Amino acid sequence: MASARTARGLHKLFVRNLPWTVGNQELRSYFKDFGKVINASVVFDKKTGLSKGYGFVTFNNLSLLQKVENESRHFLEGNYLNVQKQS
Questions:
Q1: Is residue 22 left, alpha or beta, with left meaning phi > 0 and alpha meaning psi from -120 to 50?
Q2: Do residues 61 and 9 make contact, with C-beta atoms less than 8 angstroms apart?
Q3: pLDDT score, position 60
Q4: Three-class DSSP category at 24
Q5: Considering only CA atoms, which of 12, 18, 16, 69 is closest in space to residue 38?
Q6: What residues does each domain of the chain span?
Q7: DSSP 47
Q8: pLDDT classification of 2: cutoffs 50, 70, 90
Q9: Is the distance from CB of 54 to CB of 43 less than 8 angstroms?
């Protein structure tokens, strides 16, 4: 599956430690400073509707993903984010 994702030119990040106040729009807004975001989604609990504290961001350009990885720290709404490339 990872090779299919790469073949289509999509590169995905796994983002942890999201504040409960962050939704899809806020996540997209933060990462669009690095370049064009194809998709940004926060995972929510189906029963409570509350954020599970993690999400995914997809870029169509590997250099944008590398730009994010090269940033030493990511800080959003009071939390330092843990960002890692999804394989």
A1: beta
A2: yes
A3: 93
A4: helix
A5: 12
A6: 2-77
A7: T
A8: very low
A9: yes
> Which regions of the chain does DSSP assign to beta strands (E)?
11-16, 37-44, 51-59, 74-76, 79-85
Fold exhibited by the domain 2-77: Alpha-Beta Plaits (3.30.70)
β-strands 74-76, 79-85 pairing:
antiparallel
Q: How far, CA to CA in Å, does 9 sit from each of 6, 47, 65?
A: 5, 34, 11
Asked if 18 and 54 count as a contact pair (C-beta separation under 8 A), the reply is yes
Q: What is the pLDDT of residues 25-73, one digit of tens each?
A: 999 999 999 999 999 999 999 999 999 999 999 999 999 999 999 998 9
- Other Cβ atoms less than 10 A from the Cβ of 67: the count is 14
Rounded to whole angstroms, the Cα distance separating 46 from 42 reads 12
For residue 11, report the phi and psi dihedrals to the nearest 5 degrees. Answer: -130, 125
